[in-house]
Amino acid sequence: MISGKYKGHPLKAVPGKQTRPTTDKVKEAIFQIIGPYFNGGIALDLFAGSGGLGIEAISRGASKAIFVDQQPLAIKTVNANIKQLQIDEVTEVYRADAFRALKAASKRDLVFDWIFLDPPYKKISFDDLFQQLIELKLVHTGSIIVCEHAPDHLLPEKFENLQLFKTQGYGKEIQVSYYHFET
After folding, report:
1. What's the average model confidence in pLDDT over 125-151?
2. Close Cβ partners of 161 (under 8 Å, ≥ 6 residues apart)
3. Is the confidence at residue 1, as pLDDT, over 50?
4. pLDDT for residue 84 is more than 60
5. I need a labelling partner for 164 at 20 to 30 A (CA). Which of 34, 91, 113, 144 fits?
């Protein structure tokens, strides 16, 4: 962990090459832009991998985080990291397709303050994800969506009520785009 309650606690990485963990440098930059600390709120770590972004949100004061990934090894790793930090009571973990998970969250009337989107590069449409988040009413005024993507994958300046407010590159392989939901 980078900062907050669990600072200095190392997280397990997902074994193999199916996930691309967010580096500590990028994670620190993300939370300096969207935080750096929170007073409650709910985070969604979609395409969670090891769960690093959602766990960092908990460490910095989010009251709850939900983790979703389709890969069994990722789910096993998220659960191990949650158990290690003893944060079971403020987390939920689901092995599911991202779009099915969003529909399930909507049926529970969940609304997220922060949504972390780090899908496999160029395999999932951010436009489709944005559309689902809006249609299923999973965001509210002030919600922040953090999108990690390849630098050559340009995201829109605006998508309905989502407004891009910052884009930052990290080396030749990582770009992070930040959106606010506005009504």
Report:
1. 96
2. 134, 181, 182, 183
3. no
4. yes
5. 91
